[in-house]
User: Fold Vacuolar membrane protease from Lactuca virosa.
Amino acid sequence: MFSYKSILPIRKDSNTKQGVRSIYKLYRMRNRSKNSPDTSKETSDGVKPVDETKIKNVVVTAKRSPYAVLALFILVIHGIWAVHHYQFENLPEPLSADQVGKRGFSEESAMKHVKALTQLGPHPVGSDALELGLQYVLEEAEKIKTTAHWEVDVDVDLFHASSGANILVSGLFKGKTLVYSDLKHVVLRISPKYTSEEVDSAILVSSHIDTVFSAEGAGDCSSCVAVMLELARGISQWAHGFKNSVIFLFNTGEEEGLNGAHSFITQHPWSSSIHMAIDLEAMGIGGASAIFQAGPNPWAIENYALVAKYPSGQILAQDLFTSGVIKSATDFQVYKEVAGLSGLDFAYADNTAVYHTKNDKLKLLKPGSLQHLGENMLAFLLHTASSSQLTKMASNDKSQHDPAIYFDILGTYMVVFRQSLANMLYNSVIMQSMMIWGTSVMMGGSTSAISLALSFFSILLMWIFSLSFSIGVAFILPFISSSPVPFISNPWLVGGLFLSPAFLGALTGQHIGYLLLQKYIFKKMENLSLSLSLSHVVKQNWAKLEAERWLYKSGLLQWLILLVVGHYFKVGSSYFALVWLVSPAFAYGLLEATLSPNRAPKALKTITLIFGLFIPFLISGGMFVRLAGTVVGMGVRFDRNPGGNPEWLGSLLLAVYISAVVCLSLVYLLSYIHISGAKKFIAIGSFIVFGLSLTSVISGIIPPFTEDISRAVNVVHVVDTSANKEPSSYISLFSTTPGKLTKEIEHIGEGFECGREKVIDFVTFTASYSCWTEGNSVNGWSKSDIPTLNVENDNSTTDERLTQVTIDTKESTRWSLAINTNKIEDFRLKDGENGEELIQTGTKSSADGWHIIQYSGGKNASRRFGLTLYWGKNGTQVENDENELLLKLRTDVDRLTPKVKRVLEKLPSWCSLFGKSTSPHTLAFISNLRVNF
Assistant:
């Protein structure tokens, strides 16, 4: 890999200029005079002088074996995949009821509950299927009560919540009020008998029975309900030794805006005893259920880390979730924001592409998934329910201002430490790093400073080229593929489409920086007076080796900058930067630096890279792959407003993520390539992988979607009365998955037209691109189904204006109303049937000039409402714009009209209806009220 032969000892210095000067000084000392009478004698320093001609015998070879570099690449790739597999796919063996006995957790028993619930089909709020689901859970809870330990009290309550309004101020719910009515929950409390004070201290374990209208919900969240039932059975055999009770909440209304959790926490008498909340969720189906939110008090995560058998959780997921990058919400938000509770939020995240589609089904639920979550939760509940320290979870505990930073290692061990310790660690590492860099630059002078600047410039070039290459692919995909996200059903395509270009770009950019740096170092050597003493080849090779070392050290500088930024903004996942900085720096200092006065130009050791990157890849390699899979799966539901984003945007975000991972994690490895003959092999190999992937996409050999990984679409029979004319009726087809619907329409037929000419405002979102057909759309509904907005009273004075509006939603118990906050200062909403005030006056948030009310209720929910509008100061003025809207209303009916039924029957197998709290059902009525009503 490297050969060196010299007759001179060469001094070790911190930079090229000083090293060359040291050689020159030794040369002068040992050859003080060309006329020395006896060159065979030793000088006063004990070193025998040599002839000047012998200095030219110095041989420096800057070359690394290409096989060694290729071996390193193979080691890194297989190492990352092995870490991911062990950390996220190594699930425990499912256990039977006989194996675990009365007190253990059995996946075999839990799966019976999953099967029973999924057999009901989709069971959204207000459906008959949900009533059956509630009845099933209630019966299973009663069985647990009858089989519990004789020293344990088990209370079962079928709770019928009153109407309420859920006003959350953050995340997806800004500018919204979520109103609910006629919701039912099953609540099960387990506590030790004979000790009444325990009921005043409880742990809440919560999940939801209801699903969206498009999915049977094997993952989201029948799997969670099943785990809770099996946990409750086991806990009921242990609770006689508890110091705290455990409450299991099986709620409904979560999919309509977290309404079940809100109604329980604000209305149920047991809620006042809760000190900690555990929420079980799913944003995919199966796999390792991991913590993705914890706190704000760190007590729960610290105790979970102590006892969990297969601990799984990453604060990186929490950072992404709370930042809004992941557009979703869970009941845990209610428990934190409304009840002021701390705790843990778990979620299954395998195969996120099936989320809220028909493919959230039992056959895709991996064996071992329930066992993984169940054993972790059983150990955690037994530990915390027996603890006398639960009161530390009180919301006013000052320890919540010192949150926990947590991550698991290979799903086997969890590291947890407080932010205060992180601050000390980060400050120490940052200060020491800056001192070392500062001292190095000061000692090296301008040469060192310029070398540092050039090496950092190579980092910038690496990012620029890597992003440019991968983003370029994202831009061209919509033009060469039937889908701008052709990798959804086959995520491995991402490696060829984005990883290969990102890597080639990073290598190209860093190599350009390397050449510039090498040229500068060589030029400085040429300018020194040693130009006659060292050969041109020696100086050129020395420059290559010094440039290689500077590139390695520039990677340290990159991670140092990220650590400083992350620490400044208190980003929990800043520990990534700490690990990627300290471990390679320690390896470099231990294996490359020396205190010896002799310095020979040499290549970086291979063991330095292996030793330096072992811990960083062990901690973060699996998470990099996991997050990439999550981003790929989210492409199915990327376009929240269909047609509102460019088609290439989803692929672009994925390309940016992959480029970032490449530039961050491979910066050290790339520095080893430039003096190796492996550059060509690696580049050619990357081009081949990219070409094969691109060919597969262009030819259509690999379809973007399959029956099991479907494109998310909505088929809605729209009846629009917003134009104050005769109702306009048509069938609308749109998709939250980026891309045109040309292929789907060809498959369906039925006279659909596609484009952006018919923009549909569904109140909670806008479909800018859709397909529509009006043929045979007058059947399946009648004018009596159309909701009404009637102005009953409108009074105005010089100071204020007040308008009374009655709303009749007819058959619908699920509707959305948008109120123009540019005109309306405040409002209140009453139940028109019983006079109950649902929304009181007070400060209302808005988004884009509108406040949205989302209403969801059961079969017996109200359908008539009274809305009182309090206008702002400009409300009394005459309006010139006759088309400006004051109110926008959409009502949903879970009914299949003949035309919709026919379209659904012809819907391609690679498509699935997609449900969420803001999406309409299969029949939607759209109405409005203008400002000049």
Residues 1-55 have pLDDT under 50 and may be disordered. The longest strand covers residues 152-161.
